[in-house]
Amino acid sequence: MRALRENFLWGGATAANQFEGAWDVDGKGPSVSDMCTNGTNKISKKITTKIEKDTFYPSHDAIDFYHHYKEDIKLFAEMGFKVFRFSIAWTRIFPTGMEEKPNDAGLKFYENVVDECKKYNIEPLITISHYEMPYALVEKYNGWYGRECIECFERFSKAVLDRLAGKVKYFLTFNEINAGTMPMGNVLSLGTIKGYSGPISEIKDNPQIRFQALHHQFVASAKTVKYAHEHFPEVKIGNMICFITMYPYTCNPTDILMAQKEMQMKNYFCSDVQVRGYYPAYADRYFEENNIIIKKEADDDKILKEGTVDFYTFSYYMSNCIGEVNDVKKTGGNIGLGYKNPYLKESEWGWQIDPKGLRYTLNEIYDRYQIPVMIVENGLGAKDKLEEDGSIHDAYRIDYLRSHIEQMIEAVKDGVDLMGYTPWGCIDLISASTGEMAKRYGFIYVDKYDDGTGDLSRRKKDSFEWYKKVIESNGSIL
């Protein structure tokens, strides 16, 4: 039977706005994330139109990777990481997004991070944009709704590639780009919140604006891929999808069709465009039925066709159920909701735990696209207890990851061409949806708390040594 490839990319994943901190250091400007306050256990954080005094903004300090990167990468190397996924803070390179020339101090920081990874033979996997659009672009253009953002992103992505492509082989354009198919995408991905201040959960959705903004991201992504292919032929560029597997709630054909439609527009639409290079027919019907008109420039379709990605990456945390029912409890989730599956357990945050769903999902993705696949986020957010002796016993996290890796290996036996696996939040960081520190994912505990206190010291959890053995054995010892 097939086994994991010898050069399988084991590692971990992070995002600049959730762990870097140093939000205004060395010329960095404010991003959308820097305008967000924290919440608790649900998407209850607020966004402000300016930085307010006596208000806590979690991203401003986060876990201060900016000043701890050597210490943290050394710990990743101790675990045996083959790859480290991290993102570039757009406003560290272009503070407003509109500058003509990049901020060299920002580029130098990421070059230092890359060099530190290379020192330990860790392959960097860089997400160019991960939920941190420059706030100045929100104010001026209403985020990605303004087509002007395409040119701004081109300058940004070219600056990153020109500086780092000689040392970095793998890049992703946009994190969880399909967040733009859901209302939360206004904040997380698209920045289409001009003039809005208040709870994120109360933002009024406008599908016309959202899907037009998403089209502009498609074009920007394709242009980035095309530029990389033309100037750095050794570089591989991938997409990144938030995959929430959806099952029909019953075998009623109505439920099956509803689930299929949700899978198409929320999970496959964006990757169909990025992998195949054109809008799928089912999207045309969706736009017509929802009175959405996508305005395109003359060369847009040609650009999408020329800028298809080399490999497919995705996050997988959960599955949910879709159907025509009214008396079933809905469950929480990563930017999406569905009906509770009675056969699954769930996390403290209401995310359903479905390891077999990962195997199913990997098969579905690979059967559809037939290009290499990588799981770049997967993990369990939980409240970890720091014992008096400084230890953290997180057997629940080990159980979660073990069960998912087992199914990942089964998918490889099924024939899936799987490149690697980078669990989310390999070191504790702040939650994207709530800004909490209490929702921890990492193998490494960071002494930082929801009120911003903590000495930022790093401690190994039990899962640290467990994952080290998993990597050493290439997944044969779980």
TrEMBL record:
<dbReference type="InterPro" id="IPR001360">
    <property type="entry name" value="Glyco_hydro_1"/>
</dbReference>
<dbReference type="GO" id="GO:0005829">
    <property type="term" value="C:cytosol"/>
</dbReference>
<comment type="similarity">
    <text>Belongs to the glycosyl hydrolase 1 family.</text>
</comment>
<protein>
    <submittedName>
        <fullName>6-phospho-beta-glucosidase</fullName>
    </submittedName>
</protein>
<dbReference type="GO" id="GO:0008422">
    <property type="term" value="F:beta-glucosidase activity"/>
</dbReference>
<keyword id="KW-0378">Hydrolase</keyword>
<dbReference type="Pfam" id="PF00232">
    <property type="entry name" value="Glyco_hydro_1"/>
</dbReference>
<dbReference type="GO" id="GO:0016052">
    <property type="term" value="P:carbohydrate catabolic process"/>
</dbReference>
<keyword id="KW-0326">Glycosidase</keyword>
<dbReference type="InterPro" id="IPR033132">
    <property type="entry name" value="GH_1_N_CS"/>
</dbReference>
<dbReference type="InterPro" id="IPR017853">
    <property type="entry name" value="GH"/>
</dbReference>
